[in-house]
Specification:
heterotrimer; A mainly alpha (276); B alpha/beta (260); C alpha/beta (267); A: 276 residues; mainly alpha; MetI-like fold; 12 helices; B: 260 residues; alpha/beta; 6-stranded mixed sheet; 10 helices; 37% helix; globular
Chain lengths: 276, 260, 267
């Protein structure tokens, strides 16, 4: 697609796409790159990094392989981040489209609901949700999505309100197109681009939120996540800082990759618009 | 008859484009004249206006020479006023009319705000804005399209430049307002002895008040000369075609007339 | 035969800041196969009238009889069905099409919605429409963004005639086009009218354009219809000040040329 080509032309887009592609590869190939359960005890505890070629990043307090943890943690972080963002965007799109298209009382009512969700700090909302329901990957995804859907909803609505006034929407009405077809064929595809640009940021925020929840002990205890690794290393931060630093670096690289990707995407979309 | 600006072999290519927007233009702008640049879309007429005003976007490649009588390029605002096509886009929606018109006088003439404001009031009167004292405090969206363009002209002339460029300044306005704005420009330019560069696609409109016309097509200068000469005896086929395609009320209609 | 009859149409706009044109008690008629030119300065209400006619905005009062029925009373699926008979060509050649559309999809939509021809014949019908407006059938594959302004307006016309309408409303349909292309588009419209008996309501602020294609002209000023008559009557013998202002505003060549009368342009 032209969009991807434009994306790669920008330096941000190219680097961001590269980082994300690398991460996705690692996540997909995790069992091959690091066979076995990453939570098993592999060697003696607190092996320093860069000393043993079998355990390049060392081991933690219980003797678990740090590199394995990071590789497998990529899966959780990306899966949770992407799933939560998708859920948030899907709900946001539907609500925004309904509100923008319907107008009147429906619009007012929906926007008050959006207001309510925007007022509550999204992290606290996720925290409360997971505390009450219990920590597992699906619950964490849902909790994050609950805090994230309001922004795409508002953005979609704004786009719909603006597109509704364009002549091509009037034209669709004039030729007798059914309102539902107008909403999904004429309005929605043209409302998407800024929402897509926003989605990259939502993925980054979701990944960080998941890490924070795990750090606080509210993540799924059965999977390894970077957040839980950082939490584990917190107690021995002074003697073995590497245990928290390596997963921390992994988080930073992922979030930077996502931000650069979204910057490149925004530029690619803006560039495309000015060509038209 | 001194030459204000001598343009030789001017070529402009926008960033990312392969085809030049302007190709080898040789043109003189004579001080005190009203020169109309006429062309259709893609002719390069707006590019010429922007090149002369120094308003080309960054990354544009400009070749050739532009020699000014003053020795250096004219400074926008001070020596050169520019009126854009769309007054809704060229006026800042969050600033009052007074602020926008006074800005030029303050910036370039070094006047205090008070004196700049009274200068602005004067300008608004000269462009025939009704109730100019109220208009000073009004915002652009409160005025009609024609009034906005008058304000844009006032703002362009606030620092009393010697050169005014109007880039399709009437194309976004309806016919009646267009005629008013053209007559206003004519009046202001005559009064102040300014040089006017008038960019338009309408050859008949230009013929009403331009001393000389220059016809552009696809980035090249096709023909130029005194208005009367070019219109009465066009040399190039394109000029002839442009003149022939003009329609006014005396052009025979395409439909059969109905009996009343 | 009267195709369209507009009676006492009124519309108010309340918008903070500026007074937007209302319509006051506008009435006129349009016969089948004729062109009525609706002229006025901006703010005269002519575009509002066009949009009310197309059922894009609602009227506050008045009646419209079209195609033998009460046009304003139609709603829902019945309205959508009857829309086939009244189509529109817009001014903004860029904004009138979905940026993601292809030429084929633009023409396919109305054919599909109204079942003008069976599905397997639609590509042929699209090719036929393109040819009729002077474009090669191969244009169907192109994205709408790859096509020039004049060509886009031809496609807009093709879209408008696709549903075999009896009336087309043209809202400043040639104002955004180059002068050299305008003539060709106006010629095309007149040809289509003679061929298919379509009536046009041509809205414009440019009397010269209307003179070329209108049988009758109606003049609007500040929301009221102030003058109607044959094109020749209104232009040669204007009765209203609005008409006189519009006539004076048409640019003419200031020196004698082959294209215009040798009258000076008085500002």
């Amino acid at each position: 697609m032209r969009l991807i080509r434009n994306l790669i032309r920008t330096p941000e887009g190219a680097i961001g796409l590269g980082i994300l592609a690398l991460l996705v590869l690692i996540a997909l190939l995790a069992p091959a790159l690091s066979p076995g359960d990453p939570l098993r005890i592999a060697a003696r505890p607190l092996l320093p990094p860069f000393t043993d070629v079998n355990f390049p990043l060392g081991t933690d307090r219980l003797g678990r392989d740090v590199l394995a943890g990071i590789i497998h943690g990529t899966r959780t972080s990306l899966a949770v981040g992407i799933a939560a963002a998708l859920a948030a965007i899907a709900v946001g799109l539907c609500v925004g489209l309904a509100a923008g298209f319907a107008g009147g009382l429906v619009d007012e009512a929906l926007m008050r609901v959006v207001d309510a969700f925007q007022i509550v700090p999204s992290f606290l909302l996720a925290l409360a949700f997971v505390s009450v329901i219990g920590a597992s990957v699906p619950v964490v995804v849902l909790a994050i999505a609950l805090g994230a859907w309001a922004d795409p909803a508002r953005l979609t609505r704004a786009q719909v309100l603006s597109i509704r006034e364009r002549d091509y929407v009037a034209s669709a009405r004039v030729i007798g197109m059914h309102p539902a077809e107008i909403a999904f064929k004429e309005i929605l595809p043209n409302a998407l681009p800024p929402v897509l640009a926003l989605s990259a940021i939502i993925v980054a925020a979701a990944i960080l939120t998941e890490a924070a929840l795990s750090f606080l002990g509210l993540g799924d205890p059965n999977v390894v996540t970077w957040g839980s690794m950082i939490a584990e290393g917190r107690n021995i931060l002074r003697s073995s800082p590497s245990l928290s630093i390596f997963p921390g670096i992994a988080l930073v690289v992922t979030v930077v990759g996502v931000y650069l990707f979204s910057e490149g995407l925004t530029k690619a979309i803006a560039g495309r618009r000015s060509e038209a | 008859m001194s030459v204000l600006c001598e343009i030789r072999n001017l070529s402009v290519t926008y960033r990312g484009q392969k085809i030049p927007a302007l190709n080898g233009i040789d043109l003189d702008v004579i001080a005190g004249e009203r020169l109309a640049i006429i062309g259709e879309s893609g002719s390069g007429k707006s590019t010429l206006a922007r090149a002369v005003a120094g308003l080309l976007p960054s990354g544009s490649a400009m070749n050739g020479k532009m020699r000014w009588s003053s020795g250096h390029p004219l400074q926008p605002g001070r020596d050169l006023g520019f009126v854009f096509q769309d007054p809704s886009a060229s006026l800042n929606p969050v600033l009052t009319i007074g602020e926008q018109v006074a800005e030029g006088a303050r910036q370039h003439l070094g006047l205090s705000w008070n004196r700049a404001y009274s200068q602005a009031l004067d300008m608004l009167q000269r462009v025939h804005i009704p109730e100019p004292d109220k208009a000073l405090k009004a915002f652009p969206h409160q005025l009609s399209g024609g009034q906005r363009q008058r304000v844009a002209i006032a703002a362009a002339l606030a620092a009393k430049p010697g050169f005014l460029i109007a880039d399709e300044a009437t194309s976004a306005l309806d016919m009646v307002v267009q005629a008013e704005i053209v007559s206003l420009l004519d009046e202001l330019v005559r009064e102040a002895g300014m040089t006017l560069l008038f960019i338009t696609h309408d050859i008949a409109l230009a013929s009403g008040f331009a001393d000389r016309v220059a016809i552009f097509k696809d980035g090249r200068l096709v023909e130029s000369g005194p208005t009367g000469t070019v219109l009465a005896a066009p040399q190039e086929a394109y000029t002839k075609a442009l003149i022939a395609s003009h329609r006014d009320l005396s052009t025979p209609p395409l439909v059969r007339e109905v009996a009343s | 035969m009267t195709l369209l009859s507009v009676e006492n149409l009124s519309k108010r706009f309340s918008s903070g800041g500026r007074q937007v044109a209302a319509l006051h008690d506008v009435s006129f008629m349009l016969a089948a196969g004729e062109t009525l030119g609706l002229v006025g300065a901006s703010g005269s209400g002519k575009s509002t009238l066009a949009r009310i006619l197309m059922r894009l905005i609602s009227a506050d009062a008045g009646r419209i009889r079209f195609d033998g029925g009460d046009w304003l009373a139609l709603t829902g699926p019945e309205l959508r069905r009857r829309r086939a008979k009244m189509q529109m060509v817009f001014q903004d050649v860029l904004g009138a099409f979905n940026p993601r559309a292809t030429v084929a999809s633009v023409l396919d939509d109305p054919l599909r919605i109204h079942g003008i021809v069976p599905k397997n014949e639609r590509p042929n019908e699209i090719a036929g429409l393109l040819n009729r407006v002077g474009l090669p059938a191969s244009y169907a594959e192109r994205s709408i963004r790859e096509v020039s302004g004049g060509q886009r307006q031809r496609i807009a016309i093709a879209r408008a005639i696709a549903t075999r309408p009896s009336l087309i409303v043209l809202d400043e349909a040639v104002s955004a086009l180059d002068v050299s292309i305008r003539g060709k588009i106006l010629e095309l419209l007149v040809e289509l009218q003679e061929e298919r008996g379509i009536a046009y309501l041509f809205v414009s602020h440019d009397l010269a354009v209307l003179r070329a294609v209108s049988h009758r002209i109606a003049v609007m000023d500040a929301g009221r219809l102030v003058e109607t008559g044959t094109a020749r009557q209104v232009i040669d013998n204007p009765q209203s000040s609005a008409a006189r202002a519009l006539i004076a505003a048409v640019p003419r060549f200031a020196t004698g040329t082959s294209a215009g009368i040798s009258e000076g342009h008085d500002s």
